[in-house]
Every structure is written in C-alpha cells, then in structure tokens.
C-alpha cells in the first residue's frame, strides 16, 4: 500500500487488505492513451494503432515504484499524442498530458496537471517492443514515457503529503539529465521555456518551490477539506494562492504558472461562486496580475454567484 498520508487512499484500503477482502496490484497508473494520426495521409495507419497499444501497455503494465497500489489507489492520467509528421521511422508531434485526482469523500475528480508538450520526436517501427529499464533508456520514446510516469507520481504524492513526491522528482531529473546527452529535443535547459526540463524545474527549482507547497495545501488541505467544511477548505485554497504569487515574483516566465492556469482557473470559478466578497476580491487581486489576459474568467471569480 502506498503511504500518502490520507485516510481515503491509505488506511481504508489497508484495513481491507488486512481483512483479506481486497487484492492489491503493484502497478501504479491508470493511463488513457490515444494516438491521433488524422494529419497523416497516404500511409498505413497500422503503425499508429501499434504505437497506441504499445504506449498503453507500457504505461499500464510496467511497475515504476516499489510501492503497492490497490486498484482504487491507481493514479488517473492521460496521454493524447497528435502526430504531425511521419517520415521513415521518425514520428513528430505534440503530446497533451493530464493528471487527475479524486477529492476525498466525494465523487469529484480534479485536474492536477494539464500540459501540452510540443517538442515530441522519436523513432518507432511498427511492432517495436517498448522495454522498461530502471537504469537505462531504451530510446527517446521510453525516456518521454518514463519522465511523465515519474512526474505523475511526484505530483500526485505531493498532493497528499508535504513534498511527498521527492523520490519521483529525483527519478525524473535523472531521466532529463541522461536524455540531454542524446541530442533529442525537449530536454535541454534553456532550450525552451516550456520543454520537459523547464516543467521539472518549475517544481524543483528553489525559486519556484511554492508550486510544491501549493500542491499539498490546495488539494489535501483545501479541496479535500471543502467536502466537510467548505469555508475552511476555501480559505486554505485562498491562502495557497499566495505561493503562486511568490512563484510569479521570483520567476514570472515559469511554465508552472501556465500549467496552473490551464488546470485550475475554471475550477476556481466554481470554488469562489458562493464565497464572501472579501475572499473573492482577495483571490482576484492575487490572480489578476499573474494572468492579465484571462480577465474574463477572473471576473467570474470576482463576481461569484452574483454574476
């Protein structure tokens, strides 16, 4: 059983296991995979069907940690690859990456991470096996998949305990470091402000460490608490936004800020819909300087249910 410091995913499952009424699985991810090849014409599409199945098997059948996850504890994530170019065995495209998490004691699922990786390139032959190796990278495709698997784990664990995902950020960092020497795009620091290296730095660089504090306070102390105490949970979420403010002050171009926007702004509209005007104003004053081009959505936060 994985230790996340939350009763809903920890103690409750543990008691069922001890009672012998639940079987556990070591695999950690429940990953939806889709490969879209509509932009590619005049080629045998079986290679893309094979690729989708290979990625699906890789993410859902390999074991990335030594922890044991029950079926109800698996981490929900999604990879949506849009193929833009296909030449020989070289595939180029973009990868929409999403991570979600259930809110404790509710049927609500919240988005933790929503990001489009625009620098995806790799070689793949129809039927090529994708082999997971903890100590080395088979190719650029498995490096990308390993990177996102460990990032999913890191982010998810961070939402359940303070900096609980450190071991998985370390694994992701090792992958980035190894991949930087391959010459493949998307890995090098300063090559791109929104590549895989930049995304990892958004959560691990000391200047933007507020992103990780926000993960725990927003989700575990905020959303999870709102189910039983809406005012208390919402107040914690408002307080957690100050960490976003500190990230903006220290690194205004951090990709972490756009990831938060794409994952959370619509949700914040709902969170503050019934909040007192003082709370709505405070949230608006924090968010508006960070996201001035999103004023339409931010105005909904400020107006609440009065709109």
What does this structure look like?
The chain is of the alpha+beta class and 307 residues long. It is built from 10 helices and 4 strands; from the N terminus they run αβαβββαααααααα. The protein has helices at 11-19, 46-61, 140-158, 166-179, 196-204, 210-226, 230-250, 255-271, 277-287, 295-303, and strands at residues 29-36, 75-87, 90-102, 109-123. Strands 1-2-3-4 form a 4-stranded mixed β-sheet. Helix 2 (46-61) links the parallel strand 1 and strand 2 (75-87). Helix 3 runs antiparallel to helix 4 (166-179). The longest helix is centred in the last third of the chain and has 21 residues, at 230-250. The radius of gyration is 20 Å and the shape is globular. 39% of the residues are buried. The model is unreliable at 1-24 (pLDDT under 50).
Overview in brief:
The chain is of the alpha+beta class and 307 residues long. Helices cover 46% and strands 16% of the residues. It contains ten helices and four strands, in the order H-E-H-E-E-E-H-H-H-H-H-H-H-H.
Q: Report strand order across the widest sheet.
A: 1-2-3-4
Q: Low-confidence stretches at least 5 residues in length (pLDDT < 50)? A: 1-24
> How many helices?
10
Helix content: 40-55%
Oligomer: single chain
Order of helices and strands: HEHEEEHHHHHHHH
Largest sheet: 4 strands, mixed
> What is the CA-atom radius of gyration, in angstroms?
20 Å
Q: Structural class of the secondary elements?
A: alpha+beta
Shape label: globular
Average residue pLDDT: 90
- How much of the sequence lies in strands comes to 15-25%
